[in-house]
Amino acid sequence: SKKLILILGDQLDIASPALKNIDIAVDAILMVESANEAQYVWSHKAKIALFVSAMRHFAKQLEQQGLSLIYIKQSTKTIAENLKVELVKGKFTHLICVEPGEWRLKQAIEAVASEVGIELEMQEDTHFYCSREEFSAWVANKKELRLEYFYRLMRKKHGILVDGEGNPEGGQWNFDKDNRKPFPKKGPGLINPPELFDPDDITRGVLAEVEKRYPDHPGSLANFQWPVTRKQALQALQCFVEHRLATFGIHEDAMWTGTPFGWHSLLSSSLNLKLLNPREVISAVLGAWKKYDLDIATVEGFIRQILGWREFVRGMYYLDMPQMAKDNFYQHQNKLPAWYWSGDTKMHCMKATIGQTLEYGYAHHIQRLMVTGNFALLAEILPKEVCDWYLAIYIDAIEWVELPNTAGMALFASGGRFTSKPYIASGAYIKRMSNYCDSCHYKPDVRFGETACPMTNLYWNFLIKHRKQFEASPRTRLMTANLARISEPDQKAIQIHAKALLANLDSV
Ligand code: FAD
Ligand code: SF4
């Protein structure tokens, strides 16, 4: 037999099961930089550069190990088209790959294999703790799927933060309520900097190429300092657990102008490209917990993101695709305001979050969920438009993780399938968690009129509009209780203001 082993741009793991039984004498590895992949969504320049640079570094490593590699640079054809050509040209008998993270690619690879009539061995992705079968078994016939129960199961199964009897360390499964503090009023003070990496020769070449090929794409390359190799990703992990983890939890949700990274780990892109394995991240965090006697709330809060959320959304993605991409619970149809691509808005929270996103391809979870996501939901934007933006603009965006977070969590597009209520908030929340409102054109506590904060106005408008539905469920009943304190004429004024605002989103 003669095998072709396909390695995708987000499968840069030298320990990949696809490489296990490679016969160096006859088999070959195929890697494709597809310009088509960069263009089917309008990607941030830094996201394109990260994928291409990490792929080229990985290719170099494969070649150094003496493996036979077909590496196709900046092809204008799709991955599937290239795959078909190479399979036929090389007279391969078997196609080997790890199951792709993206549903669309999985379909495309299966289609090529059946067209060419070749045996396809699509291996399970062992990068994750929870296999797709295990997730489906957990789902069984549950109607409501909630992270908390899945997460507890993962903790017990893998013996993470549980004592000998299976009880949670610290006496609680979840310390979320301890992890929601804003920065002090005078600012975050000194934050230990993350480990950043100056571009090497390969990356510099890629940056120049991306600038030349994709001049119109959004985002900047000026601050490109992301890990592009496994060695760098391990360094970034080490720096995080040594210098930044201790303060991660308590300020996890805090936001501050000019503080793009807070205490966050910046490990998502390395994890998603598979330069890092989640097991080594969790093991490093547990090691630091013991070594420095860290607060359990911080350690649990961080581990929940990786062992809980990351695994949970992946399970949900494969369970609900392709329907998840079409879900639109509220039937929202508005267009995404043009300033999502430029940050050119008078809303300071949005300007700051979008601004740093264009600069670095990064915003932390609360900025994504409660600033840009919250506004998109309140402004009744079509989920597809919002999802395309998130997929394009974040350095770590791959559909299996982007779509459930955006459509499912931020936009409640799948209804209550995997979150109990829509994550909506008014300007009061942004004011509490950040300093954005201090220098804003709008006033966070004004609901209508010239200085009304668009978040606040649209928040109340949303509650008025969906009042009946919110009151029907015990989970959301409390959210509308405060409406009783707003007079009828004021509620009318809120709705009139919102109508004008929604008709004019581009000039907010
Ligand atoms: P930290 O805050 O340091 O968290 C540690 C790790 O936990 C992250 O690196 C990530 O791997 C994992 N994690 C944390 N939250 C989540 C989550 N909700 N889902 C899955 N993994 C999580 N994450 C992506 O990796 N890619 C995306 O495309 C993406 N799109 C998002 C879109 C929206 C609307 C929202 C609300 C969240 C999205 N997230 C996405 C989740 C989360 O915001 C990012 O993983 C995180 O901000 C990355 O920064 P960090 O590495 O500093 O994370
Ligand atoms: Fe954002 Fe409103 Fe605060 Fe301005 S006032 S920063 S729009 S929440």
C-alpha Rg, in Å?
A: 24 Å
Shape estimate: globular
CATH class of the largest domain: Mainly Alpha
Indicate the proportion of strand residues.
5-15%
Q: Alpha-carbon distance between the termini?
A: 62 Å
Associated small molecules: flavin-adenine dinucleotide, iron/sulfur cluster
> Numbering strands along the chain, what is their spatial order in the largest sheet?
3-2-1-4-5
| β-strand number | 5
Instruction: Give the class from helix and strand content and strand pairing.
Output: mainly alpha
CATH architecture of the largest domain: Alpha Horseshoe
Helix count from the secondary structure assignment: 20
Mean pLDDT: 96
Protein name: Deoxyribodipyrimidine photolyase-related protein
Keywords: Lyase
Pfam families: DPRP
Organism: Polynucleobacter brandtiae
Task: Summarize the structure in short.
By secondary structure, the chain is mostly helical. Helices cover 47% and strands 6% of the residues. The site of iron/sulfur cluster has 15 residues, from helix 12, helix 16 and helix 17.
Report on the structure:
The chain is mostly helical. The chain folds into three domains: 3-123, Rossmann fold (3-Layer(aba) Sandwich); 132-320, Serine Threonine Protein Phosphatase 5, Tetratricopeptide repeat (Alpha Horseshoe); 338-507, DNA Cyclobutane Dipyrimidine Photolyase, subunit A, domain 3, CATH 1.10.579.10. The protein contains 20 helices and five strands. A five-stranded parallel β-sheet has the order 3-2-1-4-5, sandwiched between helices. Helix 4 links the parallel strand 4 and strand 5 (119-123). Helix 2 crosses helix 7, helix 10 (278-292) packs antiparallel against helix 11 and helix 12 packs across helix 13 (365-378). The chain is globular.
